[in-house]
Amino acid sequence: MAKIPENTEELTEFILEDVLYGVELDPVDSERLLSYMRERHEHLFGPHSTYFVLGSYEPPFKYRLDEALDVLNHRHDAYAYLLATQPDLDVSADVPDLKVKFFLHALYADAIPLILEHDTGGAVAEFGRVERPTLLERTYLFPRSQAERYDDESVLTTRDAILARAVELAYHADALDEELAALADHACDHGLDISTRDLESYLESELGGRTPSYSGVITDSLLHLESLDQCFSWTTTDELEAQLSNVP
Fold first, then answer.
1. pTM summary value
2. What is the rounded average pLDDT for all residues in the chain?
């Protein structure tokens, strides 16, 4: 289906043909699905702007989702939310309820910001789903450290810039230990009391011990969103908050 379903008949057809790929819904499940939409309609699909925020729920990445919710909910007449906070569908066990629930919300959100910090887990599955034509034009992707903003040593004169560069190195450096040691030396040369251990501790708190990366499949899709002016790289939380201004 090339357009968003406009009525319950089209919605049921979309769920069956584009989400469940021909799996039959019995009459009880069909009625429960429609009841769910009716119950959520006023809350989610009213005159206000709705933002369906996607990303990793793992700590510490969930922290960035919470920041995005806070920024977007401060807009006038806006409602930003996560899928996990919405009621579950009460359907038969053989129906993939989480998948159906995802599409029911994504179809009617005004915008879908996706915050991406690594290439594993549920956020990647969501990334694949929002590339469908019905969702892509309302999707705004925010990958962390896709672009290196702090690779110029002339800007590495503050503590914040040094820490931001450490995050970028975690994504891009082939020999991270050596690069962090060199970065700590650079910080010392500029009168900043930041050791290699400090940088390692900071990365642990920011990345949860994960070595972040993006696969070739992910980076290829990032290029697609970039060409549509819907992909915005960030490194620090402050930068993420600023980049969210690109979501209409």
1. 0.92
2. 91
